[in-house]
Amino acid sequence: MAEKKVSRRRAIGLAGAGVAGVVGASAVGASILADKSEKPTDTTFSDAIAFHGATQAGIVTPAQDRLHFVAFDVLTKDRDQLVQMLKDWTAAAARMTAGQDAGPIGATAGILEAPPDDTGEAIGLPPSGLTLTVGFGPTLFRDSSGKDRFGLAARKPAALADLPHFPGDTIDPAISGGDICVQACANDPQVAVHAIRNLARIGMGVVSVRWSQLGFGRTSSTSTSQATPRNLFGFKDGTANLKAEETDLIKEHLWVRPEDGPDWMAGGSYAVTRKIRMMIETWDRSPLGDQENIIGRTKGEGAALGQAKEFDEIDLVAKNGDGDPLIPVDAHVRIAHPDTNNGAHLLRRGYNFVDGSDGLGRLNAGLFFIAYQRDPRTHFVPIQTNLARHDAMNEYTRHVSSGLWACPPGVTGPDDFWGRGLFA
Amino acid sequence: MAEKKVSRRRAIGLAGAGVAGVVGASAVGASILADKSEKPTDTTFSDAIAFHGATQAGIVTPAQDRLHFVAFDVLTKDRDQLVQMLKDWTAAAARMTAGQDAGPIGATAGILEAPPDDTGEAIGLPPSGLTLTVGFGPTLFRDSSGKDRFGLAARKPAALADLPHFPGDTIDPAISGGDICVQACANDPQVAVHAIRNLARIGMGVVSVRWSQLGFGRTSSTSTSQATPRNLFGFKDGTANLKAEETDLIKEHLWVRPEDGPDWMAGGSYAVTRKIRMMIETWDRSPLGDQENIIGRTKGEGAALGQAKEFDEIDLVAKNGDGDPLIPVDAHVRIAHPDTNNGAHLLRRGYNFVDGSDGLGRLNAGLFFIAYQRDPRTHFVPIQTNLARHDAMNEYTRHVSSGLWACPPGVTGPDDFWGRGLFA
Predict the structure, then answer these.
(1) pLDDT at B10 over 80
(2) In chain B, what residues touch A68 (CB-CB under 8 Å)?
(3) B399: closest CA of chain A, how far (Å)
């Protein structure tokens, strides 16, 4: 399907039916953005991000502010039906990331006798930097009984080996795994939710929502153009994250190479998702000095202990006056550091979450961790094994959900679709 | 406590300890807002809203974009301890709404041996229009066994009578009721979450979190300066909402008058909260015409059926060519209209929510309804009785949480505190 360069703003003006009497496209288009007391109009913040490309958007894209992540179970046993849905999804994703309705008719311009092909809650909202990133879980290739559901078992990447159980894991299967995931990131949560909801609508009968997660504040920078945000421990998070501009490291650690195999994953990346509950009430009772020693950075500036500034190089060898390491042996920055992990770098783009409360008088809060890498077996798995064993932060965290996803290369144009290489 | 006019931006610059080497206050202050690819810098959007005043902010204040609502249970039996916490909360609320840390020391400037008096995740973020609005639930006056816990039973407003069970209600007690609520609204969710989290931290041992709810998109305008947003049915919501500028209606329907009694509620208002799950998957399969007949408005423009524009007067009498009412007898706008409810108006300031999924393949999504009024017995209760019996929309909604709150008048200055009148 050819993309029409018509945004939701203009689409509603063109729609005609149902909007009779509107002063003009601009009146509706301006919509919620119209008044100064309302949402800001920074164009970079609200612009579209290109959907088509050699790699998927939403990975090295400067991390947007809001997340709606969803994992689907595939219901159908019919491979063709699944492929058709992926084609339909791709067309809708191309439209929505451009700020258009999910379908060519739209939320309001259809006949009264049929359900609209868009759900409407994003009418008048700009593209808001929406990216939609797809991934395939291990169970799509073989289900838990070992069955090759769609003739894909031979194409399963070796790198998509199930994650091990890590020490301390308290994973809830109901909010873990899944056959297909979609990561929606945007600067307006209504736009991210709209996108996931419309994909679920399009997939009705073919897939069903297994679990989904909203995140409200990015916890990593993925570009040197971004300031480092803070997680719910109150610390800057992602200072040492792999960034889009570090092209050599990106090449080495992020994108799957042709020689890594399988073919259909070249230019793709593997995502690991972990919902990490934080015991924030306990953390909030910890002395500032303890917090800084656990993280290995100062809370204000975010400098590694012993350094002055956030981006000063970490010195893992330096000792204090007593001859003890300046950065404690169990500090998070030490255990997670590439030097402690055979040089492995992750590209993280996690989000803070608060899911109400836990029935025990505490906020159900934490970090929804998302990390992209060339091979989880050499990256996330050894790093997390190290962290799970040694990180002082473990006293304040609990991993409750886990996911592993093979994210294929980008959709290169209107004739391409999510998973074309896999199903070829 | 006198308010110091120091924002978090500047506070971190002044803090000194832990931020050595920072280029200056502005470098840290600009923080996440620094770069163009990041959050917008519209000052109205990020400015502070006055905390002190005759009425509480967060009611007629133009509805901000994000919500974190929390209900607390009071744990202590000691009235003085409760009063002291309310004083401490008020001081922290005055600070945080001004964009300052929760406590006078702050997140990073304290001694290393003590927990900080702010949790730090809002460092560098502007006030973001934060309002904090407090309310007292029926159980604060008498617990479920009828006990007068704090000598307040005689001061319980008659208007705070328990809500009845409405037809179709499926209320979950675990996410309903509570002794004290705080509504945090802001244009940045991290700022709203930070405020609730710090109040919970300050209240540790005195109160505990009973339930809490995040909302990501306001579903009503409370000012004529705001465009009407859309709810998750994809329709404009709140077109006919009571607005700050309608001063006569506000006087008549919103604020408690001295003659209404009790004294301590004069200038206050009553809030009703309802978590309304929407069956969005079913809705999305409904034809456009059915959706419009259920709501009684067009989906695009939001005009009442038979009218051209959103704000055209609703005509409840008009008939179509067949002699049937243009606005169906069970349409939501008809049943909720003041003319159908003895002229009663509510000031609504609800929010969309998505709380992951429901384990049955559906998004757990809907509307967190908040409405303020002078007396729920003459406003919410008869309107909701009418809606519960007749509204065609009921097929697509389910009320799962309910709360009722006496929100006292505003805090008038540094010596006043939340609930001073009640505990006088």
Answers:
(1) no
(2) 354
(3) 17
